[in-house]
Amino acid sequence: xxxxxxxxRAQFPILSQQVDGKPLVYLDNAATTQKPQVVIDALVDFYTxxxxxxxxxxHHLSDEATRRYELARDRVAQFINANRREExxxxxxxxxxxxxxxxxxxxxxxxxxEVMVTEMEHHANLVTWQQACKRSGAxxxxxxxxxNGELDLAAFDSLLSPRTRLVAFPHxxxxxxxxNPIRQLTxxxxxxxxxxxxxxxxxxxxxxxxxxxxxxxxxxFSGHKxxxxxxxxxxxxxxxxxxxxxVWQTGGEMIADVEYLSSTWGQLPNRLEAGTPHxxxxxxxxxxxxWFGQLNSADVQSHEQALLASAMEQAQCFDGIRLIGTAAKxxxxxxxxxxxxxxxxxxFILDRQGVAIRTGDNCAQPLMKRLGIPGTxxxxxxxxxxxxxxxxxxxxxxxxKMMLA
Length: 405
Ligand SMILES: Cc1ncc(COP(=O)(O)O)c(C=O)c1O
Fold this sequence. Notes:
It catalyses: (sulfur carrier)-H + L-cysteine = (sulfur carrier)-SH + L-alanine. Catalyzes the removal of elemental sulfur and selenium atoms from L-cysteine, L-cystine, L-selenocysteine, and L-selenocystine to produce L-alanine. Belongs to the class-V pyridoxal-phosphate-dependent aminotransferase family. Csd subfamily. It is built from 14 helices and 17 strands. By secondary structure, the chain is an alpha/beta fold. It folds into 2 domains: 5-30 and 296-404, Alpha-Beta Complex (Aspartate Aminotransferase, domain 1), CATH 3.90.1150; 41-293, Aspartate Aminotransferase, domain 2, CATH 3.40.640. Strand 5 (114-118), helix 5 and strand 6 (139-143) form a beta-alpha-beta unit. Bound molecules: pyridoxal-5'-phosphate (PLP). Residues 93-95, 122, 124-125, 170, 174, 199, 201-202, 222 line the site of pyridoxal-5'-phosphate.
């Protein structure tokens, strides 16, 4: 079996449009993925037929909205193999999920405690811990990477200590495409008694995420990276850990009993979800994971690897391309520099030819500094991309090279 890519593409209306008279080649999937019709329909249907607030109203619309909203939680819980549905906390995305954990951690840490991150972090998984350490007096340690973009596992081992309270790392690097050995890293961190947070922003759409098998305490991800709307995501956490994690926002829905001078908190998941949530977004995320989950994950991965292999091969034969991130285990992300030109200029010329890529620091300034580069051009692939589109990327790059020479 293999993916029927043309049938998949047909489900994404945005992909049939033209840019400057040229068919769109969308290769910015690590920034955000496009949405299949089934997700768009779920949003339209929600607002057309059952818009109401959840958990509150004693009326039909509210009941139906609540049913769809909680069904979405079940679908996400099943998709990541959560042990309990209450372990799935709706957030606005990975950034908010990480911030919830960091806000709680500040109350648990003090001088002498340590937090570990890696050199390949997105700002969301670096600045958040950096600030949490500043607020708590803990020490932030940064695990180095090798020049090819793989994590230095020996350094990881030597930086871990009994003082390490939390270790945070990306499942997959957004800038380099590196897939980290998250089970191995988690096991090592758990052996010293640390909490483990996996930044799953780039991992969620690239393979089977089984949070119980990974063994981490927290897995954070965004809906928009997995064919769902923006503004919705989830923090998954082990029930026992989340249940005693300090609340972060206070207000409606998260309380048990309120007096003028004191309050008590409700049960999970509500205690970490204050206020009216992004109901339509959550429903859209539930539909997206169900839709994506029905695809054969081996087919998904082999298609993505075929796209990556074609891109990396063509890049290696292309005089003037320097690849950034050549780890042995990568997802469909190719970061590169075109010799003698700025990534922004490359991106601009590609855009004129209908090819959409990301350029810049990839929200990873310290990583760019570590690699001694100002930023990269980045093509990132998804299930609906084709080998012909990879060829179009390289046609466009040849043109860019000529124009920028
Ligand atoms: C590795 C990684 N972490 C965190 C984030 C932040 O995700 P969001 O902006 O959806 O909160 C991103 C977004 O690109 C990412 O790639």
